Amino acid sequence: xxxxxxxKDLSQESVAKTAQISQxxxxxxxxxxxxxxxxxxxxxxxxxxxxxxxxxxDE
Length: 59
What we know:
Layout: H1 2-7, H2 12-19, H3 23-30, H4 38-48, H5 52-57
Helix pairs in contact: 2-3, 2-4
């Protein structure tokens, strides 16, 4: 997720806002401390402009 976000020059805050979660929640997901619900994962993928598969497999 970090690589995809960096490639698009997005901040954690902007992705979190678009995904409708807090920046702290997003940070802990990106850092591997939390596992998101599928709905949250879908929202993050949309915010990053990728598919859930790309997000999970980090392709």
